[in-house]
Design brief:
heterodimer; A: 60s Ribosomal Protein L30, Chain: A; B: mainly beta; 2 domains; seven-stranded mixed beta sheet; 4 helices
Chain lengths: 124, 456
């Protein structure tokens, strides 16, 4: 089954859950630890997979600083996965700052959606 | 430079290159001759700015193109002169009733005097075999003498360039100042509303655009159908460095907009973003995670001689050069996690000091001489406002006040204006404003437009 799936199919099934952050923070929250633990199990099962982790930010920071904050969020997600035993060389991190939001309204529900570490499988 | 529309094009850059060259004729048009009359400095009464009228130029040919050029040049010239506030421009609709000059010599001075004008710009446009010829004179209304004049010949394709050139030369001659009429803005836009379904993920497309300082001639520079951010002009106005996600992660690209070529100085080593050219154009300051986290670096334009400027676990970001190239201001949250402030460091990495003490400050932009100021975006509430910090005085003043969120200031080359992004019109748009907060103008309207940078 796994072998027959294309990368797009695989990504559309979202086997790797995204994780969310507090405002102006790159600290891994408790709810994120559970998701990352599940993600690490999956990554350790499918050892040929490679992933990008995109760090995203909400609109309440500046565009330029958010490029750094997104990087810091993605890096802290990667560091946590590495702690759980995922080899660092399978993970590329990217910062999208606030430039590629998942939600474009100006309210906390939407902002929370945009403070995210987003997983993309890039090879299998 | 007579053939600025005759361009050699090849390959994939064809669209962008032709657009750019049409819009971006950098030098004055073909000929620029001074008339025989003595040039006099125009003055207003008792120290007030001279009051100036700019009626439609006289079309000496009856074809539509010439007629339109005559009207467009006078309107653009009026706008250019009004922009710098060195003259008090009399609204054009108040002198519709004054008869056009019968020739550039026969000016109805009495009527202009009655209107209260200190000066009037009278000009002619004539079709020629090769394009158009424009002659313009600034008359001192009281002295009934020509105070300044220019003659231009060249292509009729973009008559605005003649107005811009006249405005710059008139400001230089009459007010001893450098105008910005021929400068350009670069910015990021998603106006093409493209989203690309790549192999594994939908990608947002944002491309680098340029426009005249007044928003005319908006053109796309990049055509790579990915996300491109933080464009920055080279000092000679021939190249734009920017952050691109073309390879999937952020890296620095340089587009040479006349040559239609592209350079990749960092060559995909680590992740690199926010490039800015040094004032002499030989070096680029940028941000990179090549050594683990966001730090500031300087490299030669070709990517050689990379030097690390900062070494701190905090985010160091958003560099801007001092006008002499000896110092760099940047953003760092080293004094408080996720509370970025502006710092200054010598270009060799020594002499670090904090200069902003806001709750959150980013995107410093160092003014040209003689002002010695840094403009930046400061958190003032739910959003951001533009503030200006005098480096010598240590005093900060605010020039936007909570109308939308206001970010990413960039100085004009004469230090009299700033371009910035604001959400005050609903979406993200590029605006310009004077250094005192007056003269706000919306430059873009199509799509979301962000991260402006002003050419030198």
């Amino acid at each position: 089954m796994f072998a027959q799936k294309s990368l797009s199919q695989l990504n559309s099934e979202r086997p790797l859950g995204d994780v969310y952050f507090d405002l102006d923070s790159s600290t891994i929250r408790d709810d994120a630890r559970a998701s990352l633990s599940t993600n690490a199990t999956w990554l350790k099962r499918w050892t040929n997979t490679r992933i990008n982790i995109e760090g995203h930010c909400d609109e309440r920071g500046t565009s330029e600083y958010n490029l750094g904050l997104g990087e810091r969020r993605a890096a802290s997600v990667r560091a946590y996965l590495v702690e759980l035993g995922v080899p660092a060389d399978r993970v590329v991190i990217v910062s999208k700052g606030k430039e590629s939001p998942f939600c474009t309204d100006s309210n906390e529900a939407c902002w929370q959606q945009n403070r995210r570490g987003h997983f993309i499988i890039t090879a299998k | 430079m007579t053939n600025f529309l005759r361009i050699k094009l090849s390959g994939a850059v064809l669209l962008a290159a032709s657009a750019v060259l049409t819009a971006q004729q950098p030098a004055p048009p073909a000929t620029s001759q001074q008339p025989t009359s003595v040039e006099l400095r125009l003055t207003g009464e008792s120290g007030t700015p001279p009051r100036l009228a700019v009626p439609d130029l006289l079309a000496l040919s009856s074809d539509r193109e010439t007629q339109e050029a005559a009207r467009a040049i006078s309107q653009v010239l009026w706008d250019d002169l009004n922009f710098e506030r060195e003259f008090a421009l009399i609204p054009r609709d108040t002198y519709k009733s004054i008869p056009a000059a019968a020739s550039i010599e026969a000016v109805p001075f009495d009527r202009w005097r009655e209107l209260g004008a200190d000066g009037v710009i009278i000009g002619t446009v004539q079709k020629t075999d090769a394009g158009i010829r424009i002659e313009m004179r600034l008359y001192n209304v009281r002295a009934r003498q020509s105070a300044f004049g220019r003659e231009y010949t060249g292509s009729a394709a973009n008559p605005r360039i003649y107005a811009h050139t006249m405005a710059d030369e008139l400001h230089d001659s009459q007010r001893q100042m450098r105008g910005v009429a021929r400068t350009k803005l670069t910015f990021i836009s998603d106006r093409n509303k493209e989203a690309v379904l790549a192999t594994v993920e939908k990608r947002d497309v944002k491309e680098v655009f340029i426009a005249d300082y007044d928003g005319a001639n908006q053109r796309r520079v990049t055509i790579n159908r990915t996300m491109n951010l933080t464009p920055s002009w080279s000092p000679d106005g021939r190249s734009i460095a920017y952050t691109s996600y073309r390879t999937g992660v952020q890296d620095i690209l340089i587009s040479n907009i006349f040559a239609g070529t592209m350079e990749s100085p960092t060559k995909g080593v680590g992740q690199n973003w926010l490039p800015v050219f040094s004032p002499d154009g030989t070096r680029i300051a940028f941000v990179s995670t090549r050594d683990g986290n966001s730090e500031l670096y300087v490299m030669n334009r070709d990517g050689s001689n990379i030097m690390r400027l900062t070494n701190n676990p905090a985010i160091d970001s958003t560099p801007t050069w001092s006008p002499t190239g000896t110092q760099i201001a940047f953003t760092s949250d080293r004094r408080g996690l996720n509370q970025p402030q502006i710092f200054v460091v010598n270009a060799d990495g020594t002499g670090l000091r904090q200069i902003s003490f806001e709750s959150y400050a980013d995107r410093p932009t160092w003014s040209p001489a003689p002002y010695n100021e840094i403009a930046f975006a400061a958190r003032t509430g739910p959003g951001f406002d533009i503030k200006i910090l005098g480096i010598a005085s240590g005093e900060t003043r605010q020039i936007t006040f909570g109308e939308g969120s206001n970010e990413s200031p960039a100085w004009s080359p004469n230090g009299r204006h700033l371009a910035f992004m604001s959400t005050r019109a609903g979406r993200s748009q590029v605006f310009t404003v004077d250094r005192d907060g007056r003269n706000l103008r919306q430059v873009t309207r199509d799509g979301n437009n962000t991260m402006p940078h002003w050419s030198q």
